[in-house]
Specification:
The structure is a single chain. By secondary structure, the chain is an alpha+beta fold. The protein has four domains: 44-51 and 197-273, Efflux pump adaptor protein, beta barrel domain (Elongation Factor Tu (Ef-tu), domain 3); 54-82 and 165-192, OB fold (Dihydrolipoamide Acetyltransferase, E2P) (Beta Barrel); 88-161; 280-326, no CATH class. Helices cover 28% and strands 39% of the residues. The protein has helices at residues 7-29, 88-124, 129-161; strands at 31-33, 36-51, 54-58, 63-68, 75-76, 81-86, 164-166, 171-176, 183-184, 189-195, 198-205, 217-220, 230-241, 244-250, 264-279, 285-287, 290-295, 299-309, 312-317, 324-326. The strands form three sheets. The protein has a six-stranded antiparallel barrel with strand order 2-11-14-13-12-15. Strands 3-10-8-5 form a four-stranded antiparallel sheet, with no helix packed on it. The longest helix has 37 residues, at 88-124. The chain starts with 6 loop residues before the first helix and ends in a 10-residue tail after the last strand. Mean pLDDT is 82; it is low at 1-28.
Amino acid sequence: MRLFIPTAFFRRLALVVAASAAVAPAAAQDEYYVSPHTIEDQKSVYATVQAIDTTTARARIAGTIVDLAVDEGSAVKEGQVIARILDAKLALGLKAIDSRIQAMRSRAKLADVELERTRTLLRKGTVSQARLDKAETARKVLGRDLSAMQAERAVIAQRQVEGRVLAPAAGRVLRVNVTKGNAVQAGDTIATITANAFVLRLQLPERHARLIKRGETVRLDRARSGSVTKGVVRQVYPEIRHGRVVADVDVPGLGLGNFFVGERIKVQISAGARQGFLVPAKYLFRRFGLTFVRLQDAGDIVVQIGAMTEGGVEILSGLRPGDRLVMPPQERKEKP
């Protein structure tokens, strides 16, 4: 005799199996197995904003500042005129040498006339060859004297051009050492300019010298520009001074628009690694001022939490390896 099972029964059974298959992954996703993780300890230190390259604009001649085109904080381009120095003696010397050049040119014209006359008389046999040689030599000497005087004039003119103080590099003016009307000597500093490249300079106790390495990531606690939160160690100096090791950190977007040179910024650096427990924050909940987690087999237990990290919340006590956590009730879940 054949047993007859209604078709509706198979339909209900299929629905139950499908529902169980859908619930199982969700339940698995709501569980968390406690296991040791490597936790990097972070240390708060202060870094100073420093310019990578600092240069000075200096006077090339002695004189008086007659024009000053920049002030502290001004942005400059390479080769830009930032000041002008005037030496009145150069203008007087230029006038004097111009007069001497005019006189020399007149003498040269007279020597040309004398030379041409001597050549004519030599063809007629009136004067000797020695007379012609003397006239030619005199003309050559005058020509060379004129060339030397023109070169001397070019030197004076160049010194006048050097009265313009140029920015040696593009960047911002940190300090202006003179004011309009000051007398300066050749070599005096007119302005100090920093290039548009800045770093955070760390000075760490020497016990951290072995821990900080080139390429390591550091975090800015209070970055001023929106996305600037991390930096990379670009250089670790090999010399320890006064018990401290110095390192430079590159931060994208670090510049005088967001920071001041010499400003101190709090950063977090790695101070070593250790083993510990990390738990996602969604498995923690508060009750009666204490932090709880829910174990699958033992119910709710109190835990002592530590610092918040990228991998979760550190659990200092209350858990063991292999513990299985489940999600707490939504009505009880609060932010730990």
